[in-house]
Protein 1
Amino acid sequence: MKLRPVVEAHGVRLRPFRAQDSANVVDGCADPLSQRFVSNLPTPYTETDARWWIDVGAPAAWTGGGTAYAVADPATDRLLGAVGLNNPVPARGQLEIGYWMRPAARGRGLATAATRALSEHAFAAGAARLELLTEPENGPSQRVALAAGFRYEGLRRSAGASRDAGRHDLLAWVRVAGDPPGPAARLLPDLPGGVLTDEVVALRPLAPDDAALMYRLHSRPEVVANQAPPVPPTHEAMERRCRLAQSGWLTGEIARLMITDVASGEPAGSCGLSYTDVAAGEASVGYALLPDWRGRGYATRAVRLLAGWAFGSAGIARLSAGTVPDNTASHRVLERVGFRRESVQRGRLPGLAGARLDDLTFALLPADLR
């Protein structure tokens, strides 16, 4: 596979690194975000490290069967970041693609442009498959992958090396020759405008800063009693749930949302939606409210908003909700939205000490939504 030394496409220039790039390489590689998610960078990153990369590291990537491109502004030729191919597997026609951008170049679509440009050039040169690996907490990089046409393929356990000599999971995003150029289709699209609201309650994506409130909500005895198994979460588990909320949304696993009061901006609870059968277009919903907000119709409003988004931009055909049979308050919420009781599945859910719990299932079709 023969790749050109200079590629211009999608508004960026990919070219070899030059000695005059060293200050901008330091700017990009010493940045805390780069240090957090590019674990093989020296720390602290100095001018000496940048010169080594330009003189030794980048040329070695080319001789090893990969590439190391500087991403530059076509108008000024100033370095914006880097993109490259490594870990070639010739028998599969496979390479791994990676990138970093300087802080001032982020948020402008340049990482996506560079990834698209190099991907298309690699496929034109004979590559069959490109992998892009991200840490589960690196939501911005996952958005780049999707925007560049890479599809989520799965989690690779302990595939990444950490700075502390430990291991961490990586998410694999893949684009093969013949795939459309992007963006890749998503099972769970973003909320329109980033929020759903009926002017009384609002739903927004769960964020890392929500961990303390989520622990307080989901460790309440009455909330624990209505989940399966009825075991309260740990602080660590709830912090991890909030840190990975964006990733769960982007991979199509689950959309987790906070319910807030529009007038005060105060959090009232949480809700979520996850696929139960992708091929059939079926997903399930769940929700919980803090005590001060119960009895005001907020759960009904939240579920109605969530269902409207599910049947609308998310393209889901059917929603289900499983409840324990004695959770009558939750049953009333679902029925007010238009859900209908469908079945009791005996002993379907895990309880405590080996016990099993019945699951009373409700379902909603688009025409049922009130």
Protein 2
Amino acid sequence: MSDKTTPEFEVRLLNAMRKTLISVAKDTMTKPGLRHPLTENTQKMITDCLNLVISRQTEIEKQSGTHTKMKPVYTDEQTVQSFSIDDLKKTLN
């Protein structure tokens, strides 16, 4: 099996693509009210590519059993923790 067909190569490739696309988005970010240097079509293509990369990364993680279903938490976002009543009763006893 050559280097270019191993899962590790694909993971590295997807990570590099994701990081590059995110960097392009960050580097071209403009202040509100200013014209964005990229066309709306190009912005949509970047978003579509990111969605494809992330979907494939998730698929690889699920196949390898390393998918955690974790999502980013933003500092201005309220988080809600849920727990069962039984767990609460165990803690109180």
